[in-house]
Amino acid sequence: AQSVTQLDSHVSVSEGTPVLLRCNYSSSYSPSLFWYVQHPNKGLQLLLKYTSAATLVKGINGFEAEFKKSETSFHLTKPSAHMSDAAEYFCVVNLNRDDKIIFGKGTRLHILP
Amino acid sequence: SQTIHQWPATLVQPVGSPLSLECTVEGTSNPNLYWYRQAAGRGLQLLFYSVGIGQISSEVPQNLSASRPQDRQFILSSKKLLLSDSGFYLCAWSWRSTGELFFGEGSRLTVL
Predict the structure, then answer these.
(1) Is B43 close to A103, i.e. CB distance below 8 A?
(2) What pLDDT digit, counting tens, does each position of A41-91 carry?
(3) Fewer CB within 10 Å, N side or C side of chain B?
(4) Is any Cβ of chain A less than 8 angstroms from the Cβ of B45?
(5) What does DSSP say about strands B19-26 and A32-38: parallel, antiparallel, or unpaired?
(6) pLDDT digits (tens, 9 = 90+) for A19-29
């Protein structure tokens, strides 16, 4: 079955330290992959997307993600966390064969002062 | 530019009553359309999606249904609401070439 798994429901990091949010996908076809962020009481915002071009994708606010087909992963990283990064992050897979778009269950990122 | 409208924003309904949530997209044609339900700790659960008029794919067997009577209109319905239908419902659209989703502002449904 096609799916997307976010391995951590909560991640806590100190301000100024690196962020790693993990995502693995399962798909029989070449997927498109996305990361969205949702701040408290706000709508969803696209952080970045992978659509079969460069495997290292840069997004907004200093985030980036690397598509690794051999590991079926699309982990989100940021070199230095900022307090404003505290939010919920969703890894999303577009199963291109039939346009089904599936969300992971989300990872809530906490930034410690 | 493209816009998406979703209404009503808030709805309180008794158990067993019908439901109709409506979503329309402006400024584009032949979009893919999606209904999601968001619950804490469960992310966004895909309920229905549509790649064209009258074409509906259902992901979750339950007492909800969806229809797409026009190219840019997507309706979520129920004949009889259950308590478990309470939640935050999001409509979204995408271009097929990119898969990037654009969301409506959501409808919060409370079933009492």
Answers:
(1) yes
(2) 888 999 999 987 788 999 999 999 999 989 999 999 999 999 999 999 999
(3) N
(4) yes
(5) unpaired
(6) 999 999 988 77
